[in-house]
Write a structure and sequence with these properties.
This protein is α/β, with parallel strands linked by helices. Helix content is 30%, strand content 19%. Strand 5 and strand 6 form a beta hairpin.
Length: 236
């Protein structure tokens, strides 16, 4: 083969090599070759199940960025209770390595998620999470309240905080499986982390963090609000 022919062949081979390399890179970068990530990628989950409390379909919401800013009110609490809250909040980030990172702030006005302890009496609910979201299901803020009438024992605070944080991170509903953190079962107090179904359900709401699909762009429209109340029966 002549030198000129060899050089032409080498240039052609090099061009094909670059093209072959560029195709997978384009997909990983979220370009035209990216493959949408759906709930089917995270099985098993309870994202499409019916909430046993409301008999309505579960819904998923999401924060647009992490870490979220968390304020924990010291009122009506003890150091052990405050420590329990922090332990429970950390369950989600440890389990997913992506969802739930937070920074604690001292000013409630600057918080994305505010947590308070209140004695609301024997109203049948030990925990409550209220949240606001936009038309794209992006969370705007969340407010968690623990009813001390049922949660006076500091040992119950960690799992209770993890459960309510699951709502505050975007799980709008509950699981039908008593082995899941997001269920109604007193068995959640034997857990030390979310279950596989819990983790896969939160992943369904944050597919962009676990694959090549991106979170939906910022949405306009009215801000809506919802509240999830957790019955006292889930607590020991």
């Amino acid at each position: 083969m002549r030198e000129s022919q060899f050089n032409a062949f080498a240039r052609t081979a090099f061009a094909f090599a670059l093209l072959a390399l560029a195709i997978p890179l384009a997909g990983c970068g979220g370009g035209a070759m990216s493959v949408p990530i759906t709930r089917d990628a995270f099985i098993p989950n309870f994202a499409s199940e019916t909430d046993p409390q409301t008999s309505l379909p579960n819904k998923l919401y999401h924060w647009r960025q992490f870490p979220v800013r968390v304020y924990i009110s010291p009122t009506n609490s003890t150091p052990a209770m405050l420590s329990g809250v922090l332990v429970g909040l950390d369950w989600w980030e440890r389990a997913t390595d992506k969802v739930g990172s937070f920074v604690q702030v001292s000013d409630p006005a600057s918080a994305d998620i505010a947590i308070a302890f209140r004695d609301e009496g024997a109203n049948g609910f030990s925990g409550r999470t209220a949240y606001s979201y936009d038309s794209g299901s992006a969370l705007v803020n969340a407010r968690i309240s623990f009813n001390l009438n049922y949660l006076g024992d500091p040992s119950t605070i960690g799992p209770a905080a993890a459960h309510e944080m699951g709502h505050a991170l975007g799980i709008g509903g509950h699981s039908n499986d008593h082995a899941d953190l997001m269920s109604f079962s007193p068995g959640i107090f034997l857990l030390t982390s979310p279950s596989l179904r819990d983790v896969n359900t939160i992943k369904c709401g944050y597919a962009g963090l676990f694959g090549r699909a991106a979170l939906a762009p910022a949405s306009s429209g009215p801000i809506k609000s919802a509240t999830i109340r957790c019955p006292s029966s889930i607590h020991p």
